[in-house]
Amino acid sequence: MDKEIFVTRSSMPDYEEYIEAIKPLWDTHWLTNMGTYHKQLEHLLKEYLKVPDISLMVNGHMALELAIQAFDFPKGAEIITTPFTFISTTHAIVRNGLTPVFCDVKPEDGTIDEVRIESLITEKTAAIIPVHVYGHVCNVEEIHRIAEKYNIKVIYDAAHAFGVEYQGNGIGAYGDASVFSFHATKVFHTVEGGAVTFKDHKIYEKLYNLKNFGIRGEELVTEVGANAKMNELCAIMGLCNLKYIDSSIQARKHIFEHYNRRLSGIEGIITFQGNEKATKNYAYFPILVTDTYKNSRNEVYEKLKENHIYARKYFFPVTSDQACFKNKYRYIDIPCARALAEQVLTLPLYEGLSGEEVDMIMDLF
Ligand SMILES: *Cc1c(COP(=O)(O)O)cnc(C)c1O
Questions:
Q1: What's the pLDDT tens digit per position in 250-272?
Q2: Confidence band (pLDDT; 50, 70, 90) for 274?
Q3: Most Cβ neighbours (<10 Å): which of 159, 208, 211, 279?
Q4: 228 Cα to the center of ligand 1, angstroms
Q5: Residue 244 alpha carbon to ligand 1 centre in Å
Q6: Measured from the CB, is residue 89 less than 6 Å from ligand 1?
Q7: pTM
Q8: Which residue's CA is the closest to the ligand 1 atom numbered 5?
């Protein structure tokens, strides 16, 4: 049987390096609860991401849930967000007792269509939760302007945007908060993990309480919190991976450019063009299979699958069409999000995918 090629494969440090790095835990027996490595990774990521403040979490989803919770929005408040994302974004809003209001996206990059945001604002609107989908930067200036005008918060889902910079600033420095995922399938990972980045230091205390049961002393609990701390084994995985992140992104870049070369000139296949004011992290390689291509998106997906290449329809269906949300929220026409969801196919892209493998995939087009 042919080798199977999945859409992604986790980067890993050398086995010996990780084993060496976790050895001190057998002396200290300190495995979690904001230990040395948790603090060290927090410090290094704050620098690497160029953000004013950061709090590490057990995963990206809890980071999103707790970031939203940290702002104490009134129950039932409306949150303007996009349905062209991983289900986690919408779940985090709904699990906070808030109401998602789905805004359409832009066809050129899949991010929220800032031009449509204002018409969705009501007196119940508390925040905008846009997504830097595929690491594509949202129109942060316009979103900032709208948020100021209506006095609402902005929390970015930056799960795809690790290390991305916009006009020299860390992408996590925009908005009131941004959320990163360090899941094993992401550009940078801690096996499972995530972080909230933010400006206002008061949020640090709030998130600390939310991720650690609200415990502020041996006999003192000041807030109703969850448990969402990153443990030491995960923090050490992050410290190991962070050493190689630049070369890892560079390796992705080569594969990304190889795909671009092979796809250029193929009638009916569209690739996303980057924003020249932003750096890329080459997290994903989404393509759009349009009507002028010889096969439909689903036919391409099946053909690749028959050849043991598992591309993914990221993101189909749009989250607002999922069984758990369908017909539950205010109806808003989202033609661009639906069109993207019908056409998109995310091709395998990870450190270690060889040029021969990319050619093999491209020979099927
Ligand atoms: C991965 C992801 C999340 C959730 O992160 P986890 O670390 O898997 O919990 C949230 N939003 C988006 C857009 C993601 O891709």
A1: 999 999 999 999 999 899 999 99
A2: confident
A3: 159
A4: 15
A5: 22
A6: yes
A7: 0.98
A8: 60
For residue 294, how far is its CA from the centre of ligand 1 (angstroms)? 33
Nearest residue CA, atom 6 of ligand 1?
60
Residue 34, C-beta contacts closer than 8 angstroms, at least 6 positions apart = 212, 229
Instruction: Measure the CA–CA gap between 45 and 66, rounded to whole angstroms.
Output: 19
270 CA → ligand 1 middle, Å? 25
What the block records as the tokens of 290 is 């349009």
293-334 pLDDT, tens per residue?
Answer: 999 999 999 999 999 999 999 999 999 999 999 999 999 999
In this prediction, residues 114-125 reach a mean pLDDT of 98
Q: Which of 86, 93, 134, 155 to mutate to test the pocket of ligand 1 (most atoms within 8 A of CB)?
A: 86
Answer yes or no: is the C-beta of 159 below 6 A from any ligand 1 atom.
Answer: yes
Q: Which is it for the CA torsion 327, 79, 210, 87, positive or negative?
A: positive
DSSP 73-124: PPTT-EEEE-SSS-HHHHHHHHHTT-EEEEPPB-TTT-SB-HHHHGGG--TT
Contact call for residues 253 and 202 (beta carbons, < 8 A): no
Q: Which atom of ligand 1 is nearest to the CA of 133?
A: 13
Going from the C-alpha of 43 to that of each of 21, 40, 136, 174, 234, the distances in angstroms are 17, 5, 26, 19, 15
Q: What is the pLDDT of residues 172-227, one digit of tens each?
A: 999 999 999 999 999 999 999 999 999 999 999 999 999 999 999 999 999 999 99
Helix (H, G, I), strand (E, B) or coil at 5: strand
Task: Name residue 99's amino acid.
Answer: T
Ligand 1 atom showing the smallest separation from residue 85 Cα: 13
Give Cβ neighbours of residue 43 (< 8 Å, ≥ 6 apart).
none
